[in-house]
Specification:
heterodimer; A: alpha/beta; Rossmann fold; 6-stranded mixed sheet; globular; disordered N terminus; B: mainly alpha; disordered C terminus
Chain lengths: 512, 370
């Protein structure tokens, strides 16, 4: 399988890249310390490390976004200077980011064509469309070419990002957690394809990943970074996952998920016959019957863009129902602030900084969002600064939120600490119903383990938990009961104990 | 036991850090607009130098005309009164993330409402008349800017453009009413509403020579600060301004807050118009559109939308505008010169926002505390 050569200047074969003594300092902080990594042509190399280990810094130095404090880089054995990303692209280096780089208002076809360096002033769309169609037939998956990218789901956008790099003829590809929004089957397909491209010598790949399964199944070699240093690595065949995990996290002890207690609860939330428009306004979301009992975690699996986010919006009162009803403890629920308080309903939306925090307000203020207007059973008119400081100090301590101070704007915290702060706010006090979406997206190892432990603890304390997640491992680890959502409907249900992963995957992929 | 103790010490340390970083942030918040003001003044000096006018003379004249004598202070403070209220019309919605620049419309209509009350029921005794005028001015101003907030919330109409265009509508409406329905036939070359009964005129604050609008303006600033910083309503409004999605998922009534705070800002501006009529002009006429609403925008930004900081900012700008006449006469500079300075300061203020959290020398404050 070959990628069409659209730009004659980049090399036509996989290229070898090597970093020599790469060091990057930001002021007094050393983000990267003397890192030398050799990635031979045609290899599939994985960069492992916790958040903040320096993986992003390293690849940003390689791509010319940062100018390293010291160190060199060679491409095909020749020393090269990469002063900016354009120079990296000219050398055939490309990158797929965690965050999307597509223009949301343009279609996939337009995004692909304008990303090329040689776009003519007048674009012959008929010819471009024919070329694109031919290109897409050679790819193992496709995306709708004529829909504005803003309307595509995250998973589809990620596929398009990858297609774009292949379309641009890049020969050394850095993938930054490319599968975090894909189903296992899609991920396997994607990585299998990348693997195919590397073994036939078309492409060299450097992938940042947290998933050992992907490393062992697809990669040739790993390099492990910890606190900016290259602490080990080698051929994947010679390493066990336990060895890789030990290199990655060092001496630290991981928090184990709390034991699952048997709680025989009553239904807390019931959704029946609910119908609402989806984000595109073209399709409907229909939830016939969804019950969550106290003391159980219901995991809702599904590929992104199959109505999970709309469901979260329905349950948090941000998307009006056309039909049907939501009941909590047998009473109609419209997700107002007073109802949420009365029934102890808490929300953990995905991307907490974007959806659950005011980024410029302080950590203390953000922690106070839920309690500021109510205390001792009475609504409050005056804001109590001391109550805020005391609550924040206690919760920051209990949840080990790492922050310079309580007055720091919450946007200055790392992703894991933002999520810890939000968790501390939402899990404080009695919780009867907890609605969660993708709580661990983009977080490192130990933060993930800790946050899952907290969720399990809330369940054991009797909360009814609905966990909407695109991470199937997370669903399998936490759930008592698993539901699969596909095309706006709940299409499959199974107890988590003894669940058949193949069956779940099949339903996620739309085979019912 | 020891773990509990350690935890308590840790939280005490964090709390100590809270104070020091809060202080550092407060200093930064004060330094940035002051530096912007200075930068704008320096840029304006260069502009003056190109015109062949000595910048130092200019600033000395501003000082003399705005703040040099008891008379100039009286003049400055009288101008500050409507500016304080006009700035609140920008600052309050700004805390909810809305940029309202059409306060001028609420001022004008507030003044017309006061004039209309006087025309319709001139028989009322003085205090009742004043109260009624104030209520009418605040109500009309509140409806006008609250309407902008409602358009924003319910229909997604851009509040900046809507408020600006509605200010033009308001001025046209004023002209229509003052030259038609509400016109006093005795007002010949300057169409106005009927003169207010003598008992309805608002007098001066004893010993200051400035009308009571100044006191009301300062009170309005203090109350707005308390509302925003010290009440749960203000906190809810700041959450809406900080992130609408987060406010919604917390179940906060974003719509009511947006409409309520824009209406409150408009009510303050309407009150400014009422004071212009009842304390300065004696009737509603085209003098109401004096540009206070636009100067209020600069004041609110200079004060970073903080109610208490609006007071000095408004007095500063009032002094600058009060000196305009003297500058024209003494330096032979055109009337628009002060606007050029205001524009340069405004650009510098907008630029200064990009330096937020980047003042390196302040970080030592935090470190020393640790």
């Amino acid at each position: 399988m070959r990628v069409p050569a659209l730009d004659p200047s980049p090399p036509q074969h996989a290229i070898a890249v090597e970093t020599l003594g790469m060091t990057m300092r930001f002021g007094s902080f050393t983000a990267l310390k003397d890192v030398s990594i050799r990635i031979p042509a045609g290899s599939f190399h994985v960069l492992l490390g916790e958040n903040g280990a320096g993986k992003s810094t390293l690849v940003k130095c390689m791509m010319g976004f940062y100018k390293p404090t010291s160190g060199q880089m060679t491409v095909d054995g020749r020393e090269v200077a990469v002063p900016d990303p354009r120079a990296a692209h000219d050398l055939g280096l490309g990158m797929v980011y965690q965050h999307f780089t597509l223009v949301p208002s343009l279609t996939a076809a337009e995004n692909l064509v304008i990303s090329r360096k040689d776009v003519p002033a007048r674009i012959d769309w008929e010819k471009e469309r024919a070329d694109l169609a031919a290109f897409m037939t050679r790819m193992p998956f496709s995306v709708p070419l004529d829909v504005p990218v803003g309307r595509l789901a995250a998973g589809e956008k990620q596929k398009l990002e990858l297609l774009k790099q292949l379309y641009l003829g890049r020969r050394f590809l850095i993938l930054d957690e490319p599968t975090s929004v894909l189903t296992p089957a899609e991920a396997d397909e994607l990585l299998g394809m990348v693997r195919g491209l590397t073994t036939d010598g078309t492409l060299t790949c450097l992938m940042i990943s947290h998933k050992f399964r992907e490393v062992t199944a697809f990669a040739d070699e790993v390099s492990v970074l910890r606190r900016g240093e290259h602490v080990g690595g080698g051929k994947v065949a010679d390493l066990s996952t336990a060895e890789m995990a030990a290199m990655m996290i060092g001496e630290k002890e991981l928090v184990r998920p709390a034991a699952r207690l048997a709680v025989n609860g009553k239904p807390v939330m019931t959704v029946s016959g609910a119908k609402a428009a989806d984000r595109s306004g073209l399709k409907t979301i229909e939830i016939g019957d969804l019950k969550v009992k106290s003391g159980e975690i219901v995991g809702l699996a599904g590929i992104s863009g199959n109505g999970q986010m709309e469901l979260m919006e329905i349950l948090s009162g941000q998307r009006p129902l056309m039909e049907g009803a939501i009941k909590v403890c047998g009473l109609p629920f419209h997700a107002t602030r007073s109802e949420a308080r009365q029934f102890n309903v808490r929300y953990l939306p995905e991307e907490p900084l974007r959806n659950a925090c005011a980024p410029k307000m302080s950590v203390a203020e953000n922690i106070f969002f839920r309690d500021f207007d109510f205390a001792g059973g009475k609504p409050k008119f005056w804001l109590n600064g001391r109550r805020m400081a005391e609550l924040a100090a206690r919760l920051v301590g209990e949840y080990k939120v790492k922050t310079a101070s309580l007055a720091t704007p919450i946007a200055a915290l790392s992703g894991g600490n933002v999520q810890r702060a939000v968790l501390s706010r939402e899990l404080n006090g009695a919780v009867d119903l907890l609605l969660i979406a993708n709580p661990c997206f983009g977080l490192d190892f130990s933060a993930v383990a800790e946050i899952r432990t907290r969720i399990m603890a809330a369940r054991n304390a009797g909360a009814a938990v609905l966990l909407i997640s695109e991470d199937l491992d997370e669903i399998l680890e936490l759930s008592d009961r698993i539901l699969v959502m596909s095309e706006g409907r709940i299409v499959f249900e199974t107890p988590a104990a003894g669940a058949d992963i193949g069956e779940i995957g099949k339903h996620m992929a739309g085979h019912h | 036991m020891s773990m509990q103790h350690a935890e308590r010490t840790a939280s005490a340390a964090v709390r100590a850090g809270f104070l020091s970083e809060a202080t550092a942030r407060r200093i930064e918040t004060a330094i940035l607009p002051l530096a912007a003001l200075l930068a704008g003044m320096i840029a304006f000096s260069i502009f003056l130098a190109f015109l062949g006018k000595p910048p130092l003379d200019f600033y000395l004249l501003v000082y003399k005309a705005g703040f040099g004598t008891a008379f100039s202070w009286t003049n400055t403070l009288a101008r500050a009164a409507p500016l304080l209220l006009a700035a609140l019309c920008v600052a309050l919605p700004a805390r909810l993330g809305l940029v309202i620049i059409g306060g001028e419309g609420a001022i004008v209509l507030g003044g017309v409402a006061a004039g209309a009350v006087a025309t319709l029921m001139p028989g009322l005794p003085g205090p009742a008349g004043i109260l009624l005028m104030a209520l009418a001015g605040a109500l009309v101003g509140g409806l006008w800017i609250g309407g902008v907030g409602a358009l924003r919330h319910l229909r997604g109409v851009n509040e900046t453009i809507a408020s600006l265009l509605m200010a033009y509508v308001a001025i046209a409406l004023m002209n229509h009413l003052v030259e038609g329905l509400l016109r006093d036939p005795a007002s010949l070359n300057k169409p106005s509403t009927a003169p207010l009964p003598a008992a309805w005129r608002i007098g001066e604050i004893p010993g200051l020579g400035v009308h009571w609008g100044l006191a009301v303006g300062i009170l309005g600033c203090i109350l707005s600060w308390v509302l925003i910083e010290r009440t749960t309503w203000g906190f809810a409004a700041r959450i809406v301004g900080g992130n609408l999605r987060a406010a919604r998922i917390q179940g906060l009534p974003a719509g009511r807050l947006v409409i309520g705070f824009t209406a409150l800002g408009g009510a303050f501006a309407g009150l400014a118009g009422m004071f212009e009529v009842a304390a300065v002009h004696g009737s509603a006429n085209a003098s109401l559109a004096a540009g206070y609403g636009y100067t209020g925008i600069l004041i609110a930004f200079l004060a970073r939308h903080n109610g208490l900081a609006i007071v000095p900012a408004a007095i500063l700008l009032a002094g600058l505008e009060a000196s305009s006449g003297l500058i024209q006469r003494r330096m032979a500079l055109p009337d628009a010169t002060v606007l050029v300075l205001e524009g340069m300061v405004f650009i510098a203020i907008l630029l200064s926002d990009t330096f937020q959290d980047r003042l390196k020398f302040l970080s030592f404050l935090e470190r020393r505390q640790k």
